[in-house]
Amino acid sequence: MLCKSFFADLNIAPEKLNKELWFFSSNGSSNGGTSWWLECQPEPVLIDCPQINLENIEFLKSHSAGKNPLVILTSREGHGNIRELQDQLGWPVLIQEQEAYLLPELPGLKTFGIDQITVSGLRLLWTPGPTPGSCVVYAPKPRNVLFCGRLLIPLNSHDVGIFRHARTFHWTRQQKSFAQLLSWLPPKASPELALGVGLKAVSPNKLLPWDSLNVP
Fold first, then answer.
1. What is d(CA 68, CA 118) in angstroms, rounded to the nearest whole number?
2. What is the domain count for the chain?
3. Distinct helix (H) and strand (E) counts, the chain
4. What is the pLDDT of residues 28-53, one digit of tens each?
5. What φ, ψ does residue 30 adopt, rounded to 5°?
6. Pick from 89, 147, 161, 200: CA 20 to 30 A from residue 107's CA?
7. Which residues contact 165 (CB under 8 A, 6 or more apart)?
8. What is the pLDDT of residues 115-174, one digit of tens each?
9. Would you say residue 49 lies in a domain?
10. CB 203, CB 158: distance < 8 Å
């Protein structure tokens, strides 16, 4: 049973952006992080942990019926109430191995190293810097969306990029991760950007165009 303390955003339902992608409102338990639901076969994914409330749990149960979803956590900043979510849904959780120690004995926990491809063809890349085990998730064409985690954040109302702040784990590694990301993406892919934090700064946009990326 969900606790009453989790009901703060009960009336805020996930927002549908297209036939395959939904966006969840920012989660205070994840330092204002944003979560995403991507319909893909045979394994839909929830990227980072949303608010634990009735609206979100009912949405996830409804959209996962008859399927075998996966939760991908893009950094320790996106964990939120992942244990409560796992208690409700029992889905496996995939995380970069550097941060697996933060979720001891979590049922269904899976890890990866430098990169990985899921059964649905999503590509994960380890991008340390924001946190030790940060990663990004790329959904190849025809979706062509990059889920940026905390690697990329808003720099102003229309530009995104890397930025050093008080919570940055290792700035030099983050710079190297950004350069690696640019070479890792397919040539001329130019994906839309799904940020893991800071969407209020670029409101009302949810997906940002590739040309909003500020390359140092």
1. 12
2. 1
3. 3, 15
4. 888 889 999 999 999 999 999 999 99
5. -115, 35
6. 147
7. none
8. 999 999 999 999 999 999 999 999 999 999 999 999 999 999 889 999 999 989 999 999
9. yes
10. no
